[in-house]
């Protein structure tokens, strides 16, 4: 198995249409990403807030780079900014093919809009990790 690698980026949404159409498009993105990420062993987290995406991908370097190249070519993204890329010691999102929270989460949007931290990789990564912790706890409570 190759060394673990991580890419963290922010981008602006280029999807047109109302909030329902954008929401439907994001659901499609998530379904495809979760399938591809599980197959390629590239877990991650995605936030959509304030018209911006923030995403982290981690896994074998070749798989992460290939996934990120697909994202960069995707017309739904513009102004893609890499906040962090490089080797990592351990995965932060190992249990998630793609954790997600969206703009309907008003606490998230008001607490830390993605556009306000789009150049602060540490803040974006901390936000993504907090989403995973919150979602994991919610799922555990739901199952028990």
From TrEMBL:
Protein name: Activator of photopigment and puc with BLUF domain
Molecular functions per Gene Ontology: blue light photoreceptor activity; FAD binding
Domain of life of the organism encoding this protein: Bacteria
Domain BLUF, chain residue ranges per copy: 4-99
Biological source species: Tanticharoenia sakaeratensis NBRC 103193
Pfam families: BLUF
SUPFAM superfamilies the UniProt entry points to: Acylphosphatase/BLUF domain-like
């Amino acid at each position: 198995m190759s060394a673990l690698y991580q890419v963290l980026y922010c981008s602006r949404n280029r999807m047109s249409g109302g909030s329902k159409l954008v929401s439907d498009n994001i659901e499609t993105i998530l379904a495809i990403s979760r399938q591809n990420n599980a197959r390629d062993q590239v877990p991650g987290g995605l936030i959509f807030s304030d018209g911006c995406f923030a995403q982290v991908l981690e896994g074998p370097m070749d798989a992460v780079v290939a996934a990120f190249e697909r994202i960069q070519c995707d017309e739904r993204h513009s102004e893609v900014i890499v906040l962090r890329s490089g080797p990592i010691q351990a995965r932060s999102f190992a249990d998630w093919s793609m954790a997600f929270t969206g703009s309907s989460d008003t606490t998230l949007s008001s607490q830390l809009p993605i556009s306000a931290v789009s150049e602060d990789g540490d803040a974006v990564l901390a936000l993504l990790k907090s989403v995973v912790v919150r979602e994991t706890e919610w799922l555990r409570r739901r199952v028990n």
